[in-house]
Amino acid sequence: MGINFWRLLVGAATLNMFVSIGAFAAEKSKENNVVKDGTVVSLQYTLSGEDGKTIESNKGKDPLKYTQGSHQIVPGLEKGLAGMKVGEERRVKVKPEEGYGPVDPKGFQEFPKEKIPSEGLKVGAVLMAKGPQGQQVPVRVHEIKDKTVVLDLNHPMAGKTLVFDVKVLDVQPATVQPTQPTVPPQPAKPAQPAQPK
C-alpha cells in the first residue's frame, strides 16, 4: 500500500509539472500575441478625419502588414498600437505632429504656368509630381496667378488630426521583411509637377 501511495504522489507531482509547463507555454503564447517592437502586425483599419468622414479603410480587403518599431507607419499610430493583443480593437487619435506633420509654408511653391497642363489650371486640381526618389506624389493646385501657379507640395493629410479605428488581426515574431505598408510613412517632398490625375 505504501508503494501505491508513492506512485500516486509521484504521478500527481508529474501531472502538476506538465500543467505548469502548459500554463507557462500558454503565457508565452499570449506574450507573442502582443504588439511590441519587432513583431509583424496584421491590421484592419478605418481612417477618418476629426469630422468623422471616412478617408480610407481596408475592411473587407487585405490587412495592412507592418513591423512594429520600424517606422513604417505614422508615429502616433505606432505608439497607439503598442501593447494591443490579437482581436483587440481601439480608436487611436493622431495629432498632426505625430502624423503627417504640420502644414509647411515652404511646401507652397510657384511654377511657371506653361509648365502646368491645361487641365491642371484650376484651384483644387490634383497633379502627380515626381519625388526625389522618382516616386509619384500627388500635389494640389493652391492658387493661380497671372504667370505662375502655386502648388501645395504638403502631404494631403498634413496639419490634420487623424482618427484610426483599428483591430489587430494577427501578431507574428519578425522573420522576413514585410512588403510595403498601404499607409505610407512620412512622404518625401515632390520635386516637379507632371501630369494631372
Sequence-ordered SSE layout with sheet pairings:
Elements: H1 2-32, E1 39-49, E2 54-57, E3 64-67, H2 75-81, E4 89-94, E5 108-112, E6 126-130, E7 136-144, E8 148-152, E9 162-173, E10 192-196
Antiparallel strand pairs: 1-2, 1-3, 1-9, 4-9, 5-8, 6-7, 6-10, 7-8
3D structure, described in words:
The chain is of the alpha+beta class and 197 residues long. It folds into 3 domains: 1-32; 35-101 and 156-185, Chitinase A, domain 3 (Roll), CATH 3.10.50; 105-152, Beta Barrel (Thrombin, subunit H), CATH 2.40.10.330. Helix content is 19%, strand content 34%. It contains 2 helices and 10 strands, in the order H-E-E-E-H-E-E-E-E-E-E-E. The strands form 2 sheets. Strands 1, 2, 3, 4 and 9 form a 5-stranded antiparallel beta sheet that branches. Strands 5-8-7-6-10 form a 5-stranded antiparallel beta sheet, with no helix packed on it. The protein starts with a helix and ends with a strand.
Summarize the structure.
This protein has 197 residues and is α+β, with helices and mostly antiparallel strands.
